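Task card 7
Instruction: Convert sequence to structure tokens.
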Amino acid sequence: MKNRVSRLTPVIMGIILIFLLAGCGNSQAEKAVTPNKDSEAQDNKPQKSLFAYVGAGLKEPVLEVAQLYEEKTGVKVELTFNNSGALLNQLETMKKGDIYMPGGMPYVEKAKEKGYLGEMIGPVAIHTPVIVTPKGNPLQITKIEDLAKPGVKLVLPEKESTALGKTAFKTFDTLGITKQIEKNVLTYVETAPKVATTLIMGQGNAGITEYSNYTKLKDKLDLIEIDPAVNIVEEIPCAILSFSDQKDQAADFLAFMKDEGPAVFAKHGFKVKK
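Output:
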């Protein structure tokens, strides 16, 4: 009997040891996977952000204003850029977002009629149509009426979907030269900045774009300013969307745009109200 007990004792001790080690292992594993509640709360805390629809021709200054705003507040402004007509279609389809900043008032008025807009500020800057030609102005264009002369190959922003295209054709209508202009159009482009780049690529010999687009490429283009008596300039506004779910934050961005926007736009070649 004594021999049997002595033979069993090592077995029992081994079993006890296994249980003790398993207990220690479980304790250590729990500690390894138990999340830090404070850290988890920090990770799951939603990052504040705003969503803005912005005219393609305003890209550079608005990107800078958005960056300055994020640096000041920690709130990121997500931006989508397109021509003004496409932006209006986007927000009509999505019915979400916080900020609307197209290239001119006609699209603001349309959005306002549909009940999409709340508070608005502006003008942040002025959209100023100008005539541009390749360097040297080979056709010697001096005024807007010259664009209607036979042989002129025009590059224009789309007349229905861009703010600048709409205003340009209003001027043509006023001067009674729309039919001749339409005969001279070589191509319509999706945005005002593309007018300048298309001319530089050797397509066309005149076009209408925004003044700021000329300032970026003035070493490759000539400028002909349009007579203020017939030129139609557009104010660039900034508005809160009525379906924004963070209107206080959007209003704060609007105030920031009102204070900081004009200087940033002027730096990028836009004309601003003094």
